[in-house]
Amino acid sequence: MNFEEEVQTLAAQIQQRKSHITNEEMTKHSLIIPFIQLLGFDVFNPLEVQPEYTADFGKKKGEKVDYAVLKNNKIIMFIEAKPVGSRLDNHNAQLCRYFNSTPELKLAIITDGVKYKFFSDVKQLNIMDTTPFFQIDFSSITKADIQTLSHFRKKLIENNVITKLAEDLSSVISIQEVLRNLFNDPSDEFIRLIIKQTGKIRLTNGAIERYRPLVKESLLSTLSEIFNEVSKEVLQPTTAKTIKNVPKPTHSIEPLSCQIVPEQPVIITKEQLRQEMYDIEQRVFARIEKVLQDNEHDISMLSFKLLPDELVLNFNNYEFLRFKSSDQCHFSSYLDASVTNELCPYYKISSKDESSIVTFNSPADIGNMVQFIIASLELTLENNSCLQ
């Protein structure tokens, strides 16, 4: 089993176990120790893992961090554990004291067994940063997360590796923030640069304010075009998607509101998809397709129905999700709202007509809803199994 498969296995175990965990000790034994083992450390060897490690700082004596992880007899990371479901932001000061008490330390992690926050000392040597340089959530893990996490394995991790990785990821976060601000409110300096680069516009006193909305519009449209090109690449295979009559659900599934079933099968090719779907629906369909493929579902069974204001997603001709966009994006699922709330804790959840609705900002959020999408599909297939 390679590292990616091991991570996915642990993620599945965490999802199965977390609802049965009621305190910090259970969190440690059931969730965090397996994580340390995932990184390749022997949790039973005190030369590699020391529980309740004393990390005195100043006048505070007897303070103990939950786990000190060692390599070649040197502390390589601290891990502070909190009960599953805890707000990790409330304990940064505690972790900071542990970090600052150990000058050779370059990595401190705080976790509830599901979410992990990684801290270092990028801004000031031997002083823990106030913001993490990396975060991972095992309920919505991505391949990029796994790639970053692989650097912390026993065979790779070194203080210089941690320092470089922390600096690089912190820089990426800062660059993303600058770009986000430029997209929302282009600075005067940025507008001057754009005007100069065009070589066709005179840089007068009124040019900046005149071209500010044009620059902002150009930035957003260019970003949309880039997303569109990525979607086209994902949707490159030429196999057609077939949409047939959606069978009537069993009594355990109530139809979603405004369900429209065509009388005749409609064949929609990838090329027609690109022509007829709006950009945002293209991106949603591409991301759903990737989620199913990554979770070993036969994507040839995935089809869609494009309504005037909704995208209906079917698998083996059974509807399992609906997508709608207005000021915000919405997914409708047959899942109970309480289940959806657990699978999508960072988003607004509501219910309507026996369905749960997730409200989110953009298709980029779909990466955080993998478990919700898979659960919606599996529920639909289970409830329709009698019709197979």
From TrEMBL:
Annotated GO molecular function terms are: ATP binding; DNA binding; type I site-specific deoxyribonuclease activity
Residues covered by the Type I restriction enzyme R protein N-terminal domain:
46-124
Calcium among keywords: no
Read off the InterPro entries from this record: HSDR_N
Is Hydrolase included in the keywords of this UniProt record?
yes
For this UniProt record, give its keywords in alphabetical order, as a comma-separated list.
Answer: Endonuclease, Hydrolase, Nuclease
Q: Which GO terms describe its biological process?
A: DNA restriction-modification system
| Pfam families linked to this entry | HSDR_N_2
> Which protein, by its recorded name, is this?
Restriction endonuclease, type I, EcoRI, R subunit/Type III
